């Protein structure tokens, strides 16, 4: 079984404005709401490729009591630990005149050591050898930076595979626990190892340097999302870079989660590094063409896949 962990899930609202004027009344021309959180998005994307998963994490308050039934109505299996407080609601504001996207995120509930221990125990009871556990997103308030590191240790003690997609101190501590796969984006990677990814003629060299630096922190495999530049993958033996076709980006929120989910599907299928990279980039690119936190269909991802170019890095 695949378990996706979202310790700080959300209900996301996306609002489009013809021309945003700060400090004035603005009327949206289009809005939508989505049940979200990085691990939740991974579960939805995995389902597009026929992979079942269990979405886990914390839920709280009135929004939490809307979130979980909403996810179950979408066909997802859920096992959330309820805590005091309120599940967060995030707002994405899109200025259609400029194409600028602004995200406004709530903090979510504050968790206690007892909450974290209860969650870790519940996860440990579920895990079996051969399972895959995907840990995604920022930590909730109250969770120490080594939270993912402890969960990775629990996952691997049960003979399962640990996948991490986070940032900052949580990502650094998680990498030290030697997860089987990490998925930073270019900004998170530079923050993690201090190696920027440059475009143009320096792209190959900077990507290789970044992948190698992340490997040295402990992860066994690295799946690096590069936005409009595509993505890269390295497993300690081979390294690949895939470049997407030109697109009109609508909203990149959730694109990294689809990138990870589709790349993970390809890896589970036993595809070679070149195909893992190509499929991941196809997923992320197709997601950036959607409105709101919408996960593209498999057909939409397959169409983009046909136009993704991949090459081996020295």
Overview of this protein structure:
It is a single chain. With 314 residues, the protein is an alpha/beta fold. It has 2 domains: 1-179, Ribokinase (UDP-N-acetylmuramoyl-L-alanine:D-glutamate ligase, 3-Layer(aba) Sandwich); 181-314, UDP-N-acetylmuramoyl-L-alanine:D-glutamate ligase. 37% of the residues lie in helices and 24% in strands. The protein is built from 10 helices and 14 strands. The strands form 3 sheets. Strands 5-4-1-8-9-10 form a 6-stranded parallel beta sheet, with helices on both faces. The longest helix is centred in the C-terminal third of the chain and has 16 residues, at 273-288. It is globular and about 50 Å long. It starts with a strand and ends with a strand.
Mean pLDDT, all residues = 94
Over the alpha carbons, how many angstroms does the gyration radius reach? 19 Å
Percentage of residues in strands: 15-25%
CATH topology tier name of the largest domain: UDP-N-acetylmuramoyl-L-alanine:D-glutamate ligase
CATH superfamily of the largest domain: Ribokinase
CATH class of the largest domain: Alpha Beta
Task: Give the tally of β-strands.
Answer: 14
Which CATH-level-2 architecture of the largest domain?
Answer: 3-Layer(aba) Sandwich
Question: What is the approximate shape?
Answer: globular
Mind describing the biggest β-sheet? 6 strands, parallel
- Helical content (DSSP H or I, runs of 4+): 25-40%
Order of helices and strands: EEEHEHEEEHEHEHEHHEEEHHHE
Which structural category fits the helices and strands?
A: alpha/beta
Q: End-to-end distance, in Å?
A: 35 Å
pLDDT < 50 runs, ≥5 residues: none
In total, how many domains does the architecture comprise?
2
Number of helices: 10
Strand order of the largest sheet: 5-4-1-8-9-10
């Amino acid at each position: 079984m695949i378990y996706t962990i979202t310790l700080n899930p959300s209900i996301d609202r996306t609002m489009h404005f013809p021309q945003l004027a700060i400090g004035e009344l603005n009327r949206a021309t289009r809005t939508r709401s989505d049940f979200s959180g990085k691990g939740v998005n991974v579960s939805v994307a995995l389902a597009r490729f026929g992979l079942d998963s269990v979405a886990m994490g914390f839920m709280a308050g009135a929004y939490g009591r809307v979130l979980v039934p909403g996810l179950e109505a979408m066909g997802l299996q859920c096992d959330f630990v309820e805590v005091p407080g309120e599940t967060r609601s995030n707002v994405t504001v899109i200025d259609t005149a400029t194409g600028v996207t602004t995200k406004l995120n709530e903090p979510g509930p504050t968790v206690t050591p007892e909450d974290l221990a209860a969650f870790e125990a519940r996860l440990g009871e579920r895990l079996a050898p051969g399972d895959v556990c995907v840990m995604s997103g920022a930590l909730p308030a109250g969770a120490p930076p080594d939270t993912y590191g402890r969960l990775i240790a629990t996952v691997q003690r049960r003979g399962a595979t640990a996948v991490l997609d986070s940032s900052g101190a949580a990502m650094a501590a998680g990498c030290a626990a030697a997860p089987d796969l990490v998925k930073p984006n270019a900004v998170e990677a530079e923050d993690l190892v201090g190696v920027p990814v440059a475009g143009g003629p320096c792209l190959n060299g900077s990507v290789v340097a970044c992948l190698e630096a992340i490997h040295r922190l402990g992860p066994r495999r690295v799946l690096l999302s590069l936005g409009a530049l595509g993505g890269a993958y390295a497993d300690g033996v081979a390294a690949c870079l895939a470049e997407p076709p030109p697109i009109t980006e609508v909203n990149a929120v959730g694109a990294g989660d689809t990138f990870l989910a589709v790349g993970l599907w390809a890896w589970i299928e036993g595809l070679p590094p070149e195909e893992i990279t190509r499929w991941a980039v196809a997923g992320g690119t197709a997601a950036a063409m959607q409105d709101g936190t919408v996960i593209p269909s498999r057909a939409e991802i397959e169409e983009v896949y046909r136009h993704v170019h991949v090459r081996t890095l020295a």
